[in-house]
Amino acid sequence: MMKFRFRRQGNDPQRERIKQDLFAFNKTVQHGFPNQPSALAYDPKLRLMAIGTKSGAVKVYGAPGVEFTSHHKETATVTQMHFLLGQGRLLSLLDDNTLHLWEINVGEGSPGLEEVGSFCLPGRPGFESTSATRVTVILLKRSCDLLCLGTEGGGVHFLEMPTLTLLDTQALVHDHIMQRSVVPEEYKCGKSLGPVESLREHPRCPNKMLIGYSRGLVVLWNYSSRKVENLFLGNQQLESLGWERSGKTFVSSHSDGSYMTWPVSSALSTQQPSTSVIPYGPFPCKAINKIVWRTTESGAPLVVFSGGMPRASYGDRHCVTVLQEKMQVTLDFTSRVIDFFTIHLIPQFDNPSALVVLLEEELVAIDLQTVGWPTIPCPYLAPLHSSAITCSYHISNVPPKLWERVVAAGLHQSPPPTWPINGGKDLALEPKHNGLLLTGHEDGTVRFWDASGVSLKPLYKLSTANIFQTDCDHNDGLMQGAEEEWPPFRKVGCFDPYSDDPRLGIQKIGLCKYSGKLVVAGTAGQVLVMDLSEEMSAHVINIATIDLLQDREGFTWKGHDRLAPKTGPISFPPGFHPFLLVQCMPPAAVTAVTLHAEWNLVAFGTSHGFGLFDYHRRSPVLARCTLHPNDSLAMEGPLSRVKSLKKSLRQSFRRIRKSRVSGKKRVVVSSPTSKVQEANAQLAEQAGPHDVEVTPVQRRIEPRSADDSLSGVVRCLCFADTFLRDGTHHGPTMWAGTNSGSVYAYALEVPSQEKFSEHSVEAVLGKEIQLMHRAPVVAIAVLDGRGNPLPEPYEVSRDLAKAPDMQGSHSVLIASEEQFKVFTLPKVSAKTKFKLTAHEGCRVRKVALASFTSVSSEEYCENGLVCLTNLGDIHVFSVPALRPQVRYDCIRKEDISGIASCVFTKTGQGFYLISPSEFERFSLSARVVTQPLCSVDVDRALCTGPPVRPVATAATPILHVALQSVGHVMNSAHSSGNSEIQAGLSSPALDSPNSSADITLDTTGDITVEDVKDFLTVSPAQGLQTNACALPGGQLIHSSSSL
């Protein structure tokens, strides 16, 4: 007999209003360094910097917290950018030969960066081809009323600004130059002079400008009289030009690695260079791409240029050279130089105070006022990928004491920077709570970032490489020896994509924010436990080894060796000091780690099993092997290249056979059952009430094979003070979930604080749950009697959080890749569930518990289960009822690395990598939103002509200056709506998602069951089994609900 199951009546309007006050999806800000930068601009009046990228993004930066971002509607490379000085306007040139004018909207509404105009230089049929009108160089005059465009055809065109109106009658073509001057034949390119390489306005006479052609010819052109005043004949291909401040001299750089200085006379003449220098000659050198000449009060000019290195010896180096009298420094970078500019004073002398260099992978600032020209740490735009990010970890509501100690440790590494790009004002209020983002890297470092506001500020860097024996010291010695040679190289920047040893890579991080205990786990099975210290120290690290195989026969590790730790005392600067190294054997990558500082315990898992260690007594507590007999891939390791072709073929044929068999079982074309189902579906569509929600059709999920490779990988670990033995006595427990759907729960005997040194911790296996679909267990969380997550260690003892409800029955939430399920404790009976894969056709990738506070009432909040799937969408479910609340599209499903890198916060925000160097920040909470709130004082009275009309464009700003400050309440509800919501919040009849009293477990169509083994319900004579490695047969106490 077929049964219809209808859920309760459709959406409750009152509940929908509450959800609108709780949940809202926004992509708010991007942290880190822009991916693939291609252009740079600087406004000395507003002290703003702009960066364009190959994907068409435009980003404007000022003081920390002052950011504007937008995007061209065309996905094209930004090749050049120029600010209209003081106006808050920016001009960009794309590689499709289009010009775009951007404007910082400072009016009312939502300030941001918007496109207000565009222009494409038209071709001249019969005279110039399309390539001839391609723009090669842009000159924006200081008055900002005229734009000069140099082209490949040798012409110079003029546009009126800011209207982008072409002055066709003013165009300068090569005929004008050759008619008004005597140009030698060797400087002609057929009938033209070749592409225009450089345009420079005269610093004293605005109506004059230098026009540089590719073959070395430079012309001083008078725009007013339309005459050639001087000819300068260079003998090498021209790359760039730069004026000296007085206008009496200019400098040119060339393709052979030379630069020349030229005197400028008032009489019409053909000039020769006064000096010609090849800084790194006499052997052939690469081109000097850009050169600038700055005057100083001391009288000795400061010359800065990029390139020019000897081809044979250092042709692969990326360098910028700074010259002043006898002092010369060759700044050696690890990525390609895109562009640079100097920050200098406007009065009598340039007196450059800083040099800012944009590289392909980072931004570097050099202090030119301090002896030695040191680097200036960047308060933002830090290269997150200086070493590849391998894991991320976020801590919300960091206590002030821990925050101050971490900041102090960072100041010992580098002093607070005086950032020269400080335009605009950050109007955001100080955040109520500080947030830390920790990133683990391939080179064994952990970086601490201030994630409280718009700017992701670097705070502190922790390195673990000095604990182990590597080749770092030897390589550093070789580099030091090379730096003493000519050219005078100086390594600058922190981008270093190469790791000395891939085994150093950080895989998992855990931090107790109240005790300052940090656990860091790596690729070679190393687990480091650290403490935060304000003093320098030199001490010996305690080393312990745990064998997770437990002498199992038939398993041979074929992967990498363990890292050899250094012997003897190791010195550490102020910061986190490791005092314990736990080495897992075999040395496979650590896949899960958790820390409970109040119990002095650290738990860790690999692809072979999991272990528990008492770091106070320096003694192991537990080691459990989770390997299946067929887990051969688990013995090879991530760095092993030993692959069994026979094994792979065998598994492939097994999958094919299994799919054929299951397909034959399912496909019954003319069965009566299928016809009945079709008739029932039609009946439900025609006669069913429209306001009733029908239970959706579920996909059939095939159970996974027990002999799948890597089934023993430990995916998650957690500690909880809950009921595991019986319903009246609670105590410490540890939970572990594996890749094969197994969950292990251990009851822990933890001595009191006074007896830590006298008694050891003991672990007793309490429950073993096998999810019959064998889907990997992604997360485990224990809920108290009210359905709330348990507080963190020390929160209750230090009166920082409300004590959990120990009167009602606890429950455990187990999240697998296919579904979420809540079990009651201690009986481990199914309470409620949601089949995500069966309903949505996706798999769980990331899970977290978050607290959502209402916009209308700060007193009302709900706990939610946040889930990111393999399709890139985010779901929020109520806890513990597991009712779907909202769903948002967040990440492209093709962006596998972005999905894998996602990390959630406890306040409903999240981060994921949109490129190797950038985090995208998003918010799921309607109340907690981190967006810029800033202002820029612009002077647009300078511009003449009609106002610029905004153009219709799809390039809406990615982020706007927010109306609310960081974490501030966005009160969008009307007063009448507030009263209704307040009444709804206080209504006892409200169907709260936190209540689970009326929840019935839906078992319709279940075809599988899970086994729960209870190892604590044994006879008194038998006693408790304490050997976790030799498990006795358990009693099957529950087999009625599916997974």
TrEMBL record:
Subcellular compartments: Cytoplasm; Endomembrane system
Region (Disordered): 974-997
Superkingdom of source: Eukaryota
InterPro entries cross-referenced by the UniProt entry: Lethal2_giant, Lgl_C_dom, LLGL2, WD40/YVTN_repeat-like_dom_sf, WD40_repeat_dom_sf, WD40_rpt
GO biological process: cortical actin cytoskeleton organization; establishment of spindle orientation; exocytosis; Golgi to plasma membrane transport; regulation of establishment or maintenance of cell polarity; regulation of Notch signaling pathway
A single GO molecular function term of this UniProt record: GTPase activator activity
Assigned GO CC terms: cortical actin cytoskeleton; endomembrane system; plasma membrane
Stretches with biased composition (Polar residues): 974-985
Positions annotated as WD repeat: 436-450
Keyword Chloroplast: no
Family: Belongs to the WD repeat L(2)GL family.
Name of the protein in question: LLGL scribble cell polarity complex component 1
Organism: Scleropages formosus (Asian bonytongue)
Taxon lineage: Eukaryota, Metazoa, Chordata, Craniata, Vertebrata
